[in-house]
Amino acid sequence: MADYKSNIPRLPARTSELMANAHPSRRAFLLATAAATAGATLGAWVPRSRAAGTIGGEVEMMAWEGYTMQNEAADFIAKNNIDLRPAIMGNQDDVTSKLVGDNPVRLDMVEYSNGYGAQYDELKIMQPLDLSKIPNYNAESMFPPFYEADMWRWDDETWSIPWVWGLDTLIYNPDTVPFEIKSYKDLLRPELTGRVAMLDNPLTTFPQIAKVAGYGDKYPLLTADEMADCFEKLKPYRDQTKVYATSNGDVVSLFTSGEIDACFCVWNGVTVSTTEQNVRTIAADPIEGGAVWADSWFIPHTAENLDTVHALINEALSPEVQAGMCTATASNTVSPLALPLMSDDAKQYFDYANFKDEFAKLKIYGLPPLTSDEHATYADWIQAWADFRAGF
Amino acid sequence: MSVDFPARRFYPATVNPLSIRLPRGWGLATPPVAFLLFFFVLPAITLFVTSFFAAQAFQIVPDWNVGNYLRIFKAAGFWKANFQGLTNGFFVATISVLLAFPAAFYVVYRAKTNLILYMALLSWFSSYLVRIFAWRTILGTNGMVNSALINLGLIDAPLDFLIFSPTAAIITLVHIMVPFALLILVSALQDVKAEYLEAARDLGATRWQVLTRVILPMCHKGLVGAFMFSFILAAGDFIIPQLMGGRDGITSGLLISGQFRSVGNWPLGSAMAWTLMSCLLIVYLLFVGLLYVARLSPGRRYH
Question: Does CATH number 1.10.3720.10 belong to domain B53-301?
């Protein structure tokens, strides 16, 4: 009599046995592989956003913290069923690294600071805007420097739209600095040795470095020798420096904890944040001038929900959202129509009554070119900045 | 013309080629090995290959050359930052192991519970950044340490080296690394049975001899592991040196990060990363060699 156990099918007890017992035919294997490949390929083509011409659905946004419009445009977002999915950028590199290369990330709506436009154009990661869908962008509702300027428009196309701007300059604590700072050279006085911070922000720190070294008029197109001279002339400032701050928030923290008395160049909105924490700081008006930054919205080449993004950009320029943003973030508005809606506090950062004359004193700088045989490139500046920080 | 498949000759007709006997337990080992292959070995090889390419405006140009390594060789700033990172790593690893070893000894041979171990691991429940900023508060110019010393009349002015200096970075990194070192050393010491120690004492060994001839050689892998783990993480860290190290705290990790994020020169960043990895490997070999020369490695004792 045969052992009854011999009739029970033996189940694989180990992974190796399971694998060994799996003998798919060649045809089955090929079919399965083809199906998996087809699924993976077609999956990427399944549309995730709404049909063209309608507003709503997912919008993958990347913006600075506080600049996502979630509060200021809340009604518009809710009314149009927009699923706004904001990601916060720590610096502009966060955006660049996501959009370049063979596997860029889907982003529908992104901010860049002035200067990066030329780089992004060279990298071909932007797409032109359809101005017919952004009616709030017109000569009447925009201050002239921000309407159709070269910084945001070239090749007969508008590539981005500035929506907030501000000033980075020398900030100091008047309660701990026993003299009025009128020039960057004042940072070299012995009272400030080891009491200065420099912000790791190429956009506004680099032009200030060029100004201090006497190359303000030529920046960002300096030769390699001129750039080297800039950092050579900056060395005395390094000797005064205690720390390299990583962000505007870090500068606030350094001021409020009493670690520094002055910052080489940082956003003037920092003064509001330190005052809220009972530490008085003021934005100096050095003879060398400050550095203007202007954030603009652009649509990356990976964007999908185009109509909704255009509508959101249009909403960003509305007087209500402009006033709300400037109040919430201590930024400046690009729209004169927003001024009546802004509080006096929100208007204190710029003399809007004399906009033309006051803005004429400022200059919006670009960034060094990504590639050039004649001038120091952006990579050269970054390397020189790193060497400078490391003590060379 | 017919083609003969030679594979048929190697297997009896009843044996499927797929049923080759694999080592016992391979199924358990496969997931982590596969994970490491795909997410460490493969990227590391890709990084190495990339380091011989050129770059232009965020684009990798597959133009084989050793220019990146030559550029690194001549970049004094990189070597200074690299040396700063390695210095951080050395002090952090040494201090972490010295602090963790007695604690591990206590946990394994003296304590009745693992309370000390759990208390040490408790700091992991707070975020990395929170711990860094907590140390800023403790070591700051107006922080707890300086305030206490001034109030006690021991100093007249705040100690500058406590904050925004390599010392501050090392103190913070030690706080991060000690629990890792402790965990590794506890695990290693648990393999050194108390009976071995008692036997050594019975045979006339002094406490020092028990430590140097029994405990350290037998837990040498844990010792190397704890040191190298702390060393590598500390030497490669660029957040703490940036936030705590001040003007002189720049490490090569920050420069590598800049190449990938700011400049978009992945080949140069890859070459820098491999240079750093090579430096860490040299330190590892030196450390293992030092233990061998000091007769503290089992290679000399047991094999």
Answer: yes
